[in-house]
């Protein structure tokens, strides 16, 4: 196919490649763990396109949050004709659609939504979503972590799926 590929990357990063395959295929909605092919894409971009993305296993750590089982079952068992359990503002709705099934930094989220004023974004979009338990931080104990990203919780994913199914 025209790519100049060697086995060196596989040899040097075999553990990373294995973990990236797992992260790309593992999903546990009840625990808020979503499939994420970002790490596998980094590996293949390095392999095929000659990019120099940092390949570190520690970036793939899953920080799933525990939620009461009753809340999860209520959200999973709802039919599409029912109203969402949480009232979603237009701002939070935009945030849900921007995040969908991925992990994004604040900057990326703001760009995707089309905002430039960080304080407004934090106050009107992120704060309500975090308080409602719809969105969570990848590193909740380290809000200023250099690789901080945000993703949907199982509650947020259920709301996202409802919104998408109604469109």
Give a description of the structure:
This protein has 8 helices and 2 strands. With 167 residues, it is mainly alpha-helical. A two-stranded antiparallel sheet has the order 1-2. About 13% of the residues have low confidence.
The helix-and-strand class reads: mainly alpha
Overall outline: elongated
Across the major sheet, the strand order is 1-2
What is the helix/strand order? HHHHHHHEEH
Tell me the total number of β-strands.
2
The gist of it:
This protein has helices at residues 8-12, 14-25, 38-49, 69-77, 90-99, 106-113, 118-131, 154-166; strands at 135-137, 150-152. It is mainly alpha-helical.
Give the SSE layout.
Blueprint: H1 8-12, H2 14-25, H3 38-49, H4 69-77, H5 90-99, H6 106-113, H7 118-131, E1 135-137, E2 150-152, H8 154-166
Essential attributes:
8 helices, 167 residues, elongated, two-stranded antiparallel sheet, mainly alpha
């Amino acid at each position: 196919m025209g790519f100049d590929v060697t086995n060196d990357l596989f040899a040097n990063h075999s553990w990373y490649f294995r973990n990236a395959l797992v992260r790309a295929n593992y999903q546990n909605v009840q625990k808020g763990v979503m499939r994420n092919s970002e790490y596998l894409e980094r590996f293949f971009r390095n392999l095929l396109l000659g990019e120099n993305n940092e390949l570190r296993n520690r970036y793939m750590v899953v920080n799933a949050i525990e939620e009461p089982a009753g809340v999860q079952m209520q959200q999973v068992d709802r039919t599409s004709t029912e109203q969402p359990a949480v009232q979603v503002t237009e701002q939070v709705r935009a945030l849900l659609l921007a995040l969908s099934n991925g992990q994004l930094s604040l900057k990326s989220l703001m760009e995707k939504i089309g905002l430039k004023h960080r304080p407004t974004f934090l106050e009107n979009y992120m704060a309500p979503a975090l308080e409602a338990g719809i969105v969570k931080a990848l590193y909740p104990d380290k809000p200023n972590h250099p690789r901080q990203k945000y993703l949907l919780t199982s509650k947020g994913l259920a709301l996202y799926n409802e919104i998408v199914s109604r469109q």
